Amino acid sequence: MADSLKQRPGPMRLIDATQYRLPLAAKLSILHRASGMLMFVLLPFVIWMFDTSVSSEISFESFTSVLSSPLAKLVVLGLIWAYLHHFCAGVRHLWMDATHSVSKEQGRSSAVVSFAISLVLTVALAAKLFGLF
Fold this sequence. Notes:
This protein has about 130 residues and is mainly α. The chain has five helices and no strands. The protein has helices at about 25-40, 45-55, 55-65, 70-100, 105-130. The longest helix is centred in the middle third of the chain and has 30 residues, at about 70-100.
């Protein structure tokens, strides 16, 4: 009878999340969700930017004065990154769904391409935003 009883597990140990090394595709997927949440949270700011930029010439002048501050530029840069990353990762997901490419190597290589495209575009638009060209 005692042999058929299950032993109770010992005290629960906390899981150390730093032990795990996520693959690049998993990091891309997590950032895809984070960029979607960032765009959702900053949606009122996007609506305000659009409204003030197209309402009148006077509101456009106030819009440009607000966007001249470094903090506003950083927020806009965050939005630019979120949009570009979300778009590139979304296209990657759609491509993988359409072609049924689910191997580990294809997932890693498409994640590298998605990261590279979104980061290059973000750097280019950041240079334009901060007036480098």
